[in-house]
């Protein structure tokens, strides 16, 4: 019972006891995560145009969104991610051409109840009237100057010689 195995096990324990510690006392202490860590999602609703490219890019159909037409634009009313099926592959973030969807470094997305797992990023009512958009720049800012363009040269087509003159010239050459 107390043979070679016990001695070998105690040797490993003794060696590891003095080795540098790689674990930390979570949650009081946490490891720093890399800069490009794929953690919890955030959505910039002001940038999102509810185009649905991110939902189409997702291989697991994690993203579902609803939109409503207000005036001439689409208004995002609901954006939900069934995060329990997410691969954290980043295809949705890459596909967003408005730079609205991002990863954060927050990896703590655990929930006690299953129904609370889906990540609701937007849930709101659409306004009755189109929202006023902020003016670009402002009145104080100088308007960009346009460079004066040189007038283009027009090509004038040479008039063709009348047919009678050209026939007379041909007759003289023949005599
Ligand atoms: S990270 Fe990948 S799996 Fe998760 S929502 Fe985005 S595209 Fe889908
Ligand atoms: S997050 Fe980006 S890709 Fe997804 S609906 Fe909004 S604008 Fe489109």
What does this structure look like?
This protein is of the alpha+beta class. The protein has a domain at 38-108 and 116-124: Alpha-Beta Plaits (2-Layer Sandwich), CATH 3.30.70.3270. Helices cover 21% and strands 16% of the residues. The chain contains 4 helices and 5 strands, in the order αβαββαββα. It has helices spanning 4-17, 53-57, 91-95, 163-174; strands spanning 41-43, 63-70, 73-81, 101-103, 119-123. It has a 3-stranded antiparallel β-sheet with strand order 2-3-5. Strands 1-4 form a two-stranded antiparallel sheet. A hairpin with a 2-residue loop joins strand 2 (63-70) and strand 3. The mean pLDDT is 83. The structure holds iron/sulfur cluster (2 copies). The site of one iron/sulfur cluster (SF4) has 13 residues, from helix 2.
Features:
alpha+beta, 21% helix, Alpha-Beta Plaits, two-stranded antiparallel sheet
Write the layout of secondary structure elements.
Layout: H1 4-17, E1 41-43, H2 53-57, E2 63-70, E3 73-81, H3 91-95, E4 101-103, E5 119-123, H4 163-174
Antiparallel strand pairs: 1-4, 2-3, 3-5
The structure holds iron/sulfur cluster (SF4) (2 copies).
The site of one iron/sulfur cluster has 13 residues, from helix 2.
Per the CATH scheme, the topology name of the domain at 38-108 and 116-124 is: Alpha-Beta Plaits
User: How many β-strand stretches?
Assistant: 5
State mean pLDDT (0 to 100 scale): 83
Can you write the helix and strand succession as a string? Answer: HEHEEHEEH
User: Whole-number radius of gyration?
Assistant: 36 Å
Number of helices: 4
Beta-strand percentage? 15-25%
**In this structure, how is the largest beta sheet organized?**
3 strands, antiparallel
- Largest beta sheet: what is the strand line-up? 2-3-5
Helix content: 10-25%
């Amino acid at each position: 019972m107390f043979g070679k195995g016990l001695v070998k096990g105690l040797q490993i324990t003794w060696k590891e006891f003095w080795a540098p510690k790689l674990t930390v006392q979570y949650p009081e202490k946490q490891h720093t995560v890399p800069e490009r860590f794929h953690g919890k999602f955030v959505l910039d609703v002001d940038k999102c145009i509810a185009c649905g490219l991110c939902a189409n890019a997702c291989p697991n159909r994690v993203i579902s969104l609803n939109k409503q037409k207000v005036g001439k634009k689409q208004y995002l009313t609901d954006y939900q991610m069934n995060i329990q099926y997410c691969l954290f592959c980043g295809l949705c973030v890459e596909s967003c051409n408005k730079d609205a969807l991002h990863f954060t470094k927050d990896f703590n997305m655990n929930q006690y109840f299953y129904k609370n797992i889906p990540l609701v990023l937007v849930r709101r009512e659409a306004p009755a009237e189109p929202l006023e958009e902020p003016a670009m720049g402002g009145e104080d800012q100088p308007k960009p100057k346009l460079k004066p363009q040189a007038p283009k040269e027009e090509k004038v087509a040479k008039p063709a010689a009348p047919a009678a003159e050209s026939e007379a010239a041909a007759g003289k050459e023949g005599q």
